[in-house]
Design brief:
The protein has 25 helices and 18 strands. α19 links the parallel β13 (456-461) and β14. 45% of the residues lie in helices and 14% in strands.
Length: 677
């Protein structure tokens, strides 16, 4: 493993943080924590922690010995000094001889001794860091170390590989009791510089920051070299079953089956690479993939075992659906039994989590990772890739072995770990929203509205320049799509299915606004308007329906209809006529697909400043009515200009109104002539 320490960069960190009022101790701690956190073979999504013992002056003017230790919610890869909350060290050390401390009391004691009460919660391994009498302590879940420990005979192999300067600690659940065990082991051999925690990870420590980091790289490198020397054999692979479907067809089926009820929504993320393919298509994947994770905390994100689906030979997508339904039923029963058996072995009462898998491995297709949002789904995918890498490597040289199921259960249902991922659920969490004309004024305001309520949002647009500009500002998926082309729509929706598993809400918003006296406009103008203002909506809705039916967890179509559909304006027929057809289309979808739980509603908006209704157009329409532009925009019963954000609110209201379909919500400030009858 490469050592990435740079004296020059370390000095730059010292200079930078000195200017910000932080000590050299803390600056170096930030630097090497980032070095560790940016190496995915050492640290992945919170799987490690670091500390430094130093002194800090409190508000009372007194200096206190403190332990600055990684705080909950901070990523080691980009940590800042506030991510290493300072805990008074001396009170921690007074508990060295205490026989037992509950998790709740441990957390309360740590929080009570924070220098700054507003700091994040210190790591659950704070006491372990405190009890080791070294200035700098580093902890990772190195893949290579897990490869060595997670196998029969792992203990003896560790002794052989790591030598006398390392002590081996048998598995103990993280927290106060692990700290006690480590203190016991260290007391017996105070000359060590490394601790190997079986089935958990590795600690290195020194009074010098660079040396602590160097030791981590050296010991992990020892593990890597040792694994390479082991006699290996390839995992036997299954045959290609000539399946007749693609991941984008599979994804909506899986996403739908994940929901225990139709209000429960998950986001799934598809991926496949050489290593995953090798792992997934192993003949014995049902055995080795269910023996546990690479390190215990992974279970919080991926559950104790994945769901494995093997499509039948020459399967069609309909065949796959039946196979998947059976596989999900078996999985849920297995998980319920796992909970029933292990919950009886613990003192406190546990409430079973949902029975849906967090990883679905479809042989000859790929991995579908699952989460409450895209970020969670990606984390589950990243962890599974690591698990696959470690387990595959062990299986090539031995047989994968992990902690007993009961110990894994304790971590999965550990309140301290569950608290990390249990945040207050937002109203649209787990929902995926697709917006056409997404970079326009109305489209982007709608994006912001749905995003604020926790939805995953995808923007479609045909304007490459605007799309590129918006993509540079947001992290969400933006896709170039010509909604007048069925092929373009189909390709965009395929990407969405692979990225998210499907979608729940389509906001069909794209359009143009051509004008002219209806008897004078060319057929070309009129046909072109119908293509974008009517047929594009049909293209998107018809493809969306296919996906929503596969998911079978309801769905919602929302159309930007316009008041022109019921109250035509003079010289505006090329726009109003297809919008009138769109109004009928909206109601037709409500009629035809209500039995599937798919709702269809529209927004009837008027006079919204946007890419369609430009300043030039507003002046032209105002002149046609012999009024000023300002009067024209406020030409409603409330004398208030209606804005794009008002339209976004209307879309949102219809999206969450689960018992409303075939409806059109008017947003125009009041216009009796344009009201629906």
């Amino acid at each position: 493993m490469k050592n990435n320490w740079s004296k020059k960069i370390a000095n730059n960190y010292i200079k930078k943080y000195k200017k910000l009022g932080f000590s050299e101790d803390l600056a170096l701690r930030v630097y090497t924590t980032r070095l560790l956190g940016r190496n995915k073979e050492l640290v992945l999504h919170g799987g490690g922690n670091t500390s430094v013992k130093t002194s800090i002056k409190d508000i009372d003017g007194k200096k206190y010995n403190v332990l600055c230790v990684k705080g909950s919610g901070w990523d080691m890869a980009d940590i800042e000094p506030p991510g290493l909350p300072a805990v008074k060290l001396d009170p921690l050390l007074t508990l060295k001889n205490k026989k037992y401390l509950s998790d709740e009391d441990m957390v309360a004691f740590q929080k009570r001794n924070l220098i700054d009460i507003k700091s994040p919660n210190p790591s659950v391994e704070t006491f372990l860091h405190a009890f080791l009498p070294y200035k700098y302590v580093d902890h990772t879940h190195a893949d290579a170390v897990m490869n060595v420990t997670n196998r029969p005979g792992g203990l003896n192999l560790c002794k052989k590989i790591f030598g006398k300067k390392a002590s081996i600690v048998p598995y103990v659940m993280p927290g106060f009791m692990l700290a006690k065990k480590v203190n016991e082991v260290y007391s017996k051999n105070p000359n060590i510089e490394c601790l190997i925690l079986m089935n958990h990870g590795i600690f290195t420590f020194s009074n010098d920051c660079k040396k602590a980091y160097d030791l981590m790289i050296n010991y992990v490198s020892k593990a890597e070299r040792a694994v390479k020397k082991l006699k290996s054999k390839k995992i036997k692979q299954i045959k290609n079953n000539n399946i007749k479907f693609d991941p984008h067809e599979v994804a909506p089926i899986i996403r739908g089956l994940l929901s225990e009820n139709k209000d429960q929504k998950f986001v799934i993320n598809y991926r496949l690479n050489k290593n995953l393919k090798y792992f997934i298509n192993g003949k014995n994947v049902r055995t080795y993939s269910t023996k546990g994770t690479a390190t215990p905390d992974h279970v919080i994100r991926v559950k104790p075992f994945p769901l494995i689906i093997t499509p039948k030979k020459n399967s069609s997508i309909n065949d796959f659906k039946n196979t998947a339904e059976n596989a999900f039923e078996i999985y849920r029963k297995k998980y319920m039994n796992y909970f029933k058996v292990n919950s009886k072995k613990v003192k406190d009462k546990k409430v079973m989590l949902d029975t849906s898998p967090r990883v679905v491995l479809v042989q000859n297709v790929g991995m579908f990772s699952v989460g409450k949002d895209l970020s969670s789904a990606k984390i589950a995918g990243d962890l599974t890739e690591t698990n696959a890498k470690v387990i595959s490597s062990v299986e090539e040289t031995s047989s994968y072995k992990f902690i007993p199921e009961k110990d894994l259960f304790d971590v999965e249902y550990w309140s301290l770990e569950q608290a990390k991922i249990k945040k207050k659920k937002k109203l649209l969490e787990g929902n995926i929203v697709v917006i056409t004309g997404g970079t326009g004024t109305i489209g982007f305001e709608t994006y912001k509205m749905f995003k604020s309520y926790g939805a995953e949002v995808v923007l479609l647009d045909n304007d490459l320049n605007r799309l590129s500009e918006i993509q540079s500002k947001i992290k969400d998926l933006c896709i170039h799509c010509d909604v007048t082309s069925k092929k373009s729509v189909r390709n965009a929706f395929r990407k969405i299915c692979e990225k998210f598993g499907g979608f729940d809400i389509l906001i069909s918003n794209a359009g143009t606004a051509p004008g002219g006296a209806i008897g004078d406009v060319s057929d070309e103008v009129l046909r072109k308007s119908f293509e974008i203002n009517f047929f594009s909506h049909q293209n998107c809705a018809s493809e969306a329906i296919k996906i929503m039916k596969k998911q079978n967890i309801n769905g919602c179509l929302l159309f930007n209809i316009s008041k022109q559909s019921v109250n035509p304006g003079k010289n505006f027929g090329p726009y109003g006529l297809p919008k009138s057809a769109l109004l009928s289309l909206c109601k037709q979808y409500a009629l035809d697909y209500g039995s599937y739980g798919i709702r269809s509603n529209g927004v009837n908006a008027d006079r919204i400043k946007s890419g369609l209704m430009t300043g030039k157009m507003i002046k032209r329409r105002a002149k046609a009515r012999s009024v000023s532009a300002d009067t024209y925009m406020r030409g409603n019963l409330l004398s208030n200009e209606v804005k794009a954000e008002d339209v976004a609110k209307a879309f949102f209201h219809l999206a969450v109104s689960k018992k409303t379909t075939g409806a059109v919500l008017t947003v125009d400030g009041g216009n009796i002539a344009a009201s629906l009858r």
